[in-house]
């Protein structure tokens, strides 16, 4: 199974295993990862699942136009590696992904 | 000195609002017992996907859980299988069928809503479905597999989302709507028109100004819908999407004030100071203006849940939040923020494929409705959370709310 490490704002980490085809938002909620809200349930409409994706991974394509627009208005500032975690769905068995969780989502 | 908490908090209803209230109590440091009484057999789950992904792609029901079982266990939130059948306010107890009563210091009613009942000949035929619960969705999904023709009664959000999902599976779909437009209670005419155009292009038949008078059947199974004009629309599946009513029976039996839902004040407190009502079942009353409002949205349910917890933990300020709603219908994405009101003046910006409607009242922006326009919408949401700009400000930026929102947010950062 792919692994995801969520790095909290205070530097602490939480690593979970995610089934292939499960989004990083869903995996976070299911595994009690702090700081990811996911109000719209993964429809890329609420912007409350914002994360900063570690650059060492090239697993995902660039954000779609809509995701890109949403990211401009997240509660925490947008960075070059900002993504909506509901749109990040690992497809590779052995992948290990690292994302940082921002201090605020709403 | 506050009275020591002994019995803790009981939440009735394990939906979006109830679960959020329980989780927020713990997150806020509440240390007494917290019990959530749920009537459904599943772990609390998300409702919005039930009329979207769950029907269209055959999504996995397990993926809908709001929180893991461990989440509740780790936080000492007890999930009890209900339903709750009575509230004894004098004794501060909740009765659960066939179980011992639960004592409470604070009670939170989060019983949600249920599909509106309709007295229609043929209502009990097989192949007539409604959609509120995960079990409803699983049953509807199974029916969609073999369905050839579906008729949806009601052109509201759930009806139109189901119509999209059925089209995706190749089912023939017609929608019967009494009004002359879709989503009439929720959105402005330009948005209705865009939604109608989207569904027509997708092959959905739209019958406006029509209502069902009878569901006709053969050998116990539905075969069609007779409408007011006398014609019969053939169907082997009929979905009732005619709205929902608040689940307030328990509150009424307990003698709480209700009026189309459980009446609460601006602190979400019912006519009993130990009982709060939240989410779809609550009618919030603003004593200053006399306006009463019951909302059915995730934002409302979760914000109510968070507020209920804060209130129990000592919050003094009244509840205040900006209403927000979304709907996905196939490739169509709707986002609504604020409350337009009937008298709103509308300004539309964008083109047919992608636009936002700015709803103005008394010269101020009160709501924004967006069709496939997420960037503008999110900017409007950020802006309205902070201020309601006047017409002059909007005209000055040619209704470019992104520019206005950027300016307001920058000012905020500068002050901080
Ligand atoms: C198919 C569907 C799609 C939707 N899509 C969207 C969307 O896209 N966006 C959006 O914002 N909103 C959407 N909504 C609305 C949203 O789901 C509701 O507003 C929200 O679920 C309300 O939360 P709640 O906790 O108040 O009620 P609910 O989530 O309905 O939970 C109430 C729970 O209380 C239980 N209950 C009732 N009585 C008792 C009792 N006596 N004892 C114990 N338990 C009891 C019920 O079984 C239920 O599980 C949708 C709703 C449906 C049905
Ligand atoms: S969960 Fe709403 S945008 Fe990702």
From TrEMBL, chain A:
One GO BP: P450-containing electron transport chain
Pfam family, one: Fer2
Domain 2Fe-2S ferredoxin-type: 2-105
GO molecular function, one term: electron transfer activity
PROSITE patterns: 2FE2S_FER_2
Keywords tagged on the record: 2Fe-2S, Iron, Iron-sulfur, Metal-binding
Cofactor: [2Fe-2S] cluster
Top-rank taxon: Bacteria
InterPro entries to which the protein is assigned, alphabetical: 2Fe-2S_ferredoxin-like_sf, 2Fe-2S_ferredoxin-type, Adrenodoxin-like, Beta-grasp_dom_sf
SUPFAM superfamilies: 2Fe-2S ferredoxin-like
PANTHER family: FERREDOXIN-2, MITOCHONDRIAL, FERREDOXIN/ADRENODOXIN
Family indicated by similarity: Belongs to the adrenodoxin/putidaredoxin family.
Protein name: 2Fe-2S ferredoxin
């Amino acid at each position: 199974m792919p692994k995801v490490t969520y790095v909290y704002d205070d530097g602490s980490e939480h690593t979970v295993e995610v089934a292939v085809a499960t989004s990083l938002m869903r995996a976070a909620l299911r595994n009690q990862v702090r700081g990811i809200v996911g109000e719209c349930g993964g429809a890329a409409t609420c912007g409350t699942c914002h994360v900063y994706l570690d650059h060492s991974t090239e697993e995902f394509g660039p954000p779609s136009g809509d995701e890109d627009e949403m990211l401009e208005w997240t509660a925490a500032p947008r960075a070059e590696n900002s993504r909506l975690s509901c749109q990040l769905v690992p497809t590779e068995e052995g992948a290990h992904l690292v994302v940082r969780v921002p201090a605020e989502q709403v | 000195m506050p009275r020591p908490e002994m019995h803790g908090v009981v939440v009735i209803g394990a939906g979006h609002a109830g679960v959020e209230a329980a989780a927020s109590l713990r997150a806020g440091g509440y240390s007494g017992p917290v019990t959530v009484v749920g009537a459904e057999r599943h772990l609390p789950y998300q409702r919005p996907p039930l009329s979207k992904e769950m029907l269209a792609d055959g999504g996995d029901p397990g993926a809908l859980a709001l929180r893991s079982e461990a989440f509740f266990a780790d936080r000492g939130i007890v999930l009890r299988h209900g339903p709750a059948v009575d509230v004894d306010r004098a004794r501060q107890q909740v009765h659960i069928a066939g179980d011992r009563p639960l004592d409470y210091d604070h009670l939170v009613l989060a019983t949600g809503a249920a599909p509106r009942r309709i007295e229609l000949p043929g209502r009990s035929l097989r192949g007539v479905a409604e959609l509120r619960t995960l079990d409803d969705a699983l049953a509807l999904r199974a029916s969609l597999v073999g369905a050839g023709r579906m008729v949806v009664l009601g052109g509201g959000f759930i009806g139109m989302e189901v119509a999209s999902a059925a089209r995706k599976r190749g089912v023939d779909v017609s929608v019967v709507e009494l009004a002359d437009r879709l989503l009439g209670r929720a959105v402005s005419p330009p948005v209705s028109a865009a939604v109608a155009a989207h569904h027509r292009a997708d092959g959905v038949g739209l019958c406006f100004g029509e209502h069902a008078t009878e569901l006709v059947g053969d050998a116990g199974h539905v075969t069609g819908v007779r409408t007011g004009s006398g014609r019969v629309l053939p169907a082997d599946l009929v979905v009732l999407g005619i709205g929902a009513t608040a689940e307030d029976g328990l509150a009424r039996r307990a003698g709480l004030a209700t009026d189309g839902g459980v009446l609460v004040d601006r602190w979400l407190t019912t006519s009993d100071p130990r009982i709060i009502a939240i989410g779809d079942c609550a009618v919030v009353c603003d004593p200053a203006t006399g306006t009463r409002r019951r909302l059915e949205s995730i934002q409302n349910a979760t914000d109510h849940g968070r507020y209920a917890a804060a209130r129990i933990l000592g919050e003094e300020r009244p509840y205040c939040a900006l209403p927000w709603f979304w709907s996905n219908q196939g490739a169509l994405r709707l986002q609504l923020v604020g409350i337009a009101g009937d008298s709103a003046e509308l300004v539309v910006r964008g083109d047919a494929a992608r636009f936002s409607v700015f709803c103005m009242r008394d010269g101020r922006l009160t709501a924004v409705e967006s069709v496939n326009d997420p960037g503008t919408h999110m900017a409007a949401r950020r802006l309205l959370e902070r201020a309601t700009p006047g017409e002059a400000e909007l005209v000055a930026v040619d209704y470019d709310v992104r520019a206005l929102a950027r300016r307001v947010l920058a000012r905020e950062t500068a002050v901080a």
